[in-house]
Amino acid sequence: MATPSIHNKKHAKSQAAASKMPSQGELFLVATPIGNLGDITLRALETLKSADTIACEDTRTSGFLLKHYAISVPLVPLHAHNEAGASERIIEKMKGGENVALISDAGTPLISDPGARLVKAAIEAGIRVTPIPGASALLSALTVAGLPTDTFFFAGFLPGKSTERKELLLWLKTIPTTLVFYEAPHRLTETLAALGAALGDRSAAVARELTKLHEECKRNSLSALTAYYTATPPKGECVIVVEGTKAMAVSDAEIDAALREKLQTGSLREAVDVVTEHSRWARSDVYARALALKKEQA
Ligand code: SAM
């Protein structure tokens, strides 16, 4: 099966050779399997075979995949720690007429994986960039989670720094679409607990070892999933999918009215808890409003 863009490129190359004009190569972003080696498209295989160079994160991991498909094309490393320099070298290769395929260790390159800098540089250099779509843990997990799929927010890995994580979670709490997170198995329980504490005890799913022998998708509340994985420490890679907030977007005046009503019968803390739960406001903001109202009433 032919890959038209590469074949066109070869035709363009021979035309350029005839006219002694250098022709630029192209960049192909090729998705590879996330576990099951059968999950690779015919077009991905054809593109990898026809490439002059394959840029990959870990040459040993990709070497294994390419050997499985009897593909013998030179590999160059492009990973988080060398992306700037490697991108420059790869751009020079493409300027010289080489077709380069970018792959990552698993799934779709650039999705929580390196490559964004290379793509930007290629676009700036006028090099054609072509996606060769395929597997991604993000969409595979979203589709089996059993939560709304019409709109969703992909949050990737939560930041490691606690202040950044806290700030992001405060914002994510207000988003009404399904939320998707990537996580490593040794941090899964801690992250599920942090999500429950920040977002409330929402419905969620953990999709683990997708496309592999021990694939599973556990669907439950965040608290039940936290308890389950505390008792059964997970192995393998996981994606966490959480339902979006059902709370209404409310105005300042509506928050004040709800707080005034609750403050008449309950404590400041109770009022803040109830109003926070039923609004998309952060608890700290509701607390500040409640304090101001209490002072007004005094
Ligand atoms: N580029 C990849 C993609 O398109 O899905 C993601 C790479 S990111 C560095 C790795 C994360 O993806 C893992 O920590 C996990 O959250 C998720 N992941 C990758 N493979 C998975 C699998 N087979 N099952 C569940 N999650 C997976």
Description:
The model has no long low-confidence stretch (mean pLDDT 92). It contains 12 helices and 10 strands. Strand 6, helix 7 (162-172) and strand 7 (178-183) form a beta-alpha-beta unit. The chain is 46% helix and 15% strand. It has 298 residues and is of the alpha/beta class. The strands form 2 sheets. The protein has a 5-stranded parallel sheet, sandwiched between helices. The protein has a 5-stranded mixed sheet with strand order 6-7-10-8-9, sandwiched between helices. S-adenosylmethionine binds at residues 34-35, 104, 106-108, 111-113, 136-138, 182-184, 207-212, 237-239.
Major sheet: arrangement of strands? 3-2-4-1-5
Radius of gyration: 25 Å
Structural class by helix and strand composition: alpha/beta
Number of helices, where a helix is a run of at least 4 consecutive DSSP H or I residues: 12
Largest sheet: 5 strands, parallel
Indicate the proportion of strand residues: 15-25%
Small-molecule binders: S-adenosylmethionine
Low-confidence stretches: none
User: What distance lies between the first and last C-alpha atoms, to the nearest angstrom?
Assistant: 79 Å
State the helical fraction. Answer: 40-55%
Number of strands: 10
Global geometry: elongated
Instruction: Name the average pLDDT.
Output: 92
User: In sequence order, what are the helices and strands, one letter per element?
Assistant: HEHEHEHEHEHEHEHEEHEHHH
Summarize the structure.
The chain is α/β, with parallel strands linked by helices and 298 residues long.
